[in-house]
Amino acid sequence: MILPVDRYVLASKRANTQRSYASALKHFEQQWGGLLPASTAQVAAYLAAYADTLSPNTLQVRLAALAQWHLARGFVDPTKDPLIRQVLKGIRTLHPSQEVQAEPLPLRVLENCIAWLEAEAAQAVAVGDARRLLRCQRDRALILLGFWRAFRSEELCRLEVPFIQAHRGEGMTIFLPWSKADRDNQGRSYSTPALKRLCPVDAYLDWLATASISDGPVFRGIDRWGRLSAQALHPYSIGHILRHALIRAGAEGELYSSHSLRRGFASWASASGWDQKSLMSYVGWRDAKSALRYVEARPDFSSL
Length: 304
What we know:
Blueprint: H1 4-11, H2 15-31, H3 40-49, H4 56-72, H5 82-94, H6 107-127, H7 130-148, H8 153-157, E1 164-167, E2 171-176, E3 188-193, H9 200-211, E4 220-222, E5 228-232, H10 236-248, H11 259-271, H12 276-283, H13 288-294
Antiparallel strand pairs: 1-2, 2-3, 4-5
Helix pairs in contact: 2-4, 3-5, 6-7, 7-9, 7-11
């Protein structure tokens, strides 16, 4: 039985974080054979055991899970010992790893993909293929909104119709009750303008009209018979949907992931002359370092 207090404590933690921490603790106990509560020496030995197979970032998540487990139960946190910092530093020295970033989606590739989806939708209407029409309209809205609003995959999957106001030729306002950057769950509203081409507002309204959606999640699964799910898409499915559409449109879809939409917009905005403050405000970045990770540097050697 979950007590009322426990219910709210669980709600305060991100679902992805809960799953990640649970997986980390399972790995520590069952796969490696560690015991909880753990000593500093035991945690250091665990790090050393997986130093050459797990990335430093993954090891950091494992440490965070162990720290949370100990603190929640009143035990001394063994991960804060100076020995752990020394072991991590040594791991980064002996096992350097390069951070892999998603390839930004270029505007020309986006244009080709949307043109293909619109052509497919028109053909689906001509032959009466309701399932194909649903998929094309959903994917078009998802990709355009993901690009122009620079949303993460989990944010796209948490969009709810009651929290969105959209008007053709004007724009749309989207409210997200919480996001990855919104640690206090204060919620934030995002505005998106209507565009003359590749318009996310038109794509969103076309999708709602085609799917007859008036409540609940915006982006949902569609089964093999063309039936619309009542549940939102899983964040892991966004990358698959994007790559599938790109490949069908003739692009090298394997190069891109769901994060390519976010990086693609940041690169486009930077190349279009947006200053860093405007880009950070629009996307929702609070840290300049976060913004710089998404923007492609373009050294100019044209004068040589």
